[in-house]
């Protein structure tokens, strides 16, 4: 962002991540639950914004591309209260270039009830599938926010023209811990994994995502093993998304992760704000 400020999030220390989710630490609220504001010019810490210990794994950050705007979004993987995921808006009040930052929850995505026999051991006691919001991405014009629900197998599109009042305007399902939704290119074939790392073309008309998070986490939440894939969404000019029925990349035993587009994309090209 163009204010000599960095914003960082908290996931967990390496020993809390490398071998998968540690249930004891998670239920104890030991994973990250804060944002941190840094002064890049003076190289010092300015603020810690604590979202609350129940908000576990404050993960992906997306700042506004417009360099004059001092706001952005951050995704929280899960809530200890009800397994929901959420998205929070960090901002300076009244758009000011100085002063303290504040943070506000603007989106909440509920868990979905499920038969315990269909759940991995880690989730059976909860009798629900958490969304497990693992990635978010913001279009270059700062209009649309894409939200990956790796657990429920849903990709959501929000209109965030007013960042304080996001509106859900699009949704597709593919994969998912219980749903195992198929793709139009493979009708009737159950898919595992779910929407994960998401990338947007600079013109905002194409969205790509893959289905693998991290090997140890893949094994915990999809114990039958993930078969890697990548898919594409087509985006209507005024919002709305649908799966491209012709594009399904099957990686087999390989697990695709980060998608980068030739010529630039929304998460790389902050300097391309129109």
> How do the strands line up in the largest sheet?
4-5-6-7
The CATH topology turns out to be Methylamine Dehydrogenase, Chain H
Strand share of the residues? Answer: 35-45%
Low-pLDDT parts are none
Q: Write down the overall geometry.
A: globular
Instruction: State Rg.
Output: 18 Å
Report helical residue fraction.
under 10%
Number of domains: 1
* N-to-C order of helices and strands: EHHEEEEEEEHEEEEEEEHEE
Quick structural summary:
With 274 residues, the chain is mostly beta strands.
Question: Could you explain how this protein is built, in words?
Answer:
This protein has 274 residues and is mainly beta. It has one domain (5-272): 7 Propeller (Methylamine Dehydrogenase, Chain H), CATH 2.130.10. 7% of the residues lie in helices and 39% in strands. It contains four helices and 17 strands. The protein has helices at 14-17, 23-27, 121-124, 215-221, and strands at residues 5-8, 34-39, 44-50, 55-63, 71-79, 85-91, 102-109, 112-113, 128-129, 133-138, 144-149, 154-159, 167-173, 198-200, 206-210, 228-235, 241-252. Strands 4-5-6-7 form a four-stranded antiparallel sheet, with no helix packed on it. The chain has a four-stranded antiparallel sheet with strand order 10-11-12-13, with no helix packed on it. Strands 14-15-16-17 form a four-stranded antiparallel sheet, with no helix packed on it. A hairpin with a 4-residue loop joins strand 2 (34-39) and strand 3 (44-50). The chain is globular, with a radius of gyration of 18 Å. It starts with a strand and ends in a 22-residue tail after the last strand.
